[in-house]
Design brief:
It contains seven helices and two strands. By secondary structure, the chain is mainly α.
């Protein structure tokens, strides 16, 4: 649906719907954190099921890495009793570990998910609450991802919406192609200038 310059597409509708489902889940199951489940659902939503499943797989690995490191962080803070200001050093170090480990297991596309999960759990879970709450926050991210995948399975755009989306994708690809052509020209011009100077 188009209203002037503003367009309400299927993905926008599904984003709102995914947040609504996450909130309802948190009302039915009080242990579910609606903020984390909602963020996870919106992050996981993609234009189609194939992309969502592919992105979802990457997110599952990322969530596991980030969640595992967040639980490690909570454990360290709980067991050692370090003052809270120590997190100035521990959290950035664990972000570096998170990135390195994600790249090491060839999950580059899940790096942002891993870091987001790690930071969300680390900053929204009190150390005193312990590791069990950390596990629950990891589950929240999985709930959100499952909501996104189920919405992409069961809520499909109308044929007209698909055509609109395909046309938008084609326009975007054409724009990128023109940018590549311009970039090639600039590279060739620069090479010619360098050859003329030598």
């Amino acid at each position: 649906m188009q209203i002037g310059r503003f367009r309400l597409g299927m993905r926008t509708f599904k984003s709102g719907l995914s947040v609504m489902i996450a909130i309802l889940l948190s009302m039915i199951f009080p242990l579910v954190n609606p903020m984390i489940a909602s963020l996870s659902a919106v992050f996981s939503l993609r234009q189609d099921l194939t992309t969502s499943v592919s992105f979802g797989k990457s997110r599952v690995i990322g969530n596991s890495i980030g969640g595992g490191l967040a639980i490690l962080y909570l454990f360290i803070m709980q067991v050692t009793g370090f003052p809270e200001w120590y997190r100035v050093f521990i959290i950035p170090f664990l972000v570096i570990v998170c990135i390195s480990f994600s790249v090491g297991v060839k999950n580059e596309t899940g790096v942002i998910a891993a870091i987001a999960t790690f930071l969300m759990i680390s900053f929204t879970t009190a150390t005193a609450d312990g590791i069990s709450v950390g596990f629950l926050r990891v589950l929240d991210t999985f709930f959100g991802m499952i909501i996104a995948i189920l919405l992409n399975i069961y809520v499909r755009p109308a044929a007209k919406e698909k055509v609109t989306q395909i046309n938008e994708d084609i326009q975007l690809l054409e724009k990128k192609e023109l940018e590549l052509i311009e970039l090639r020209k600039k590279i060739q011009e620069k090479k010619l200038q360098e050859e003329n100077q030598t």
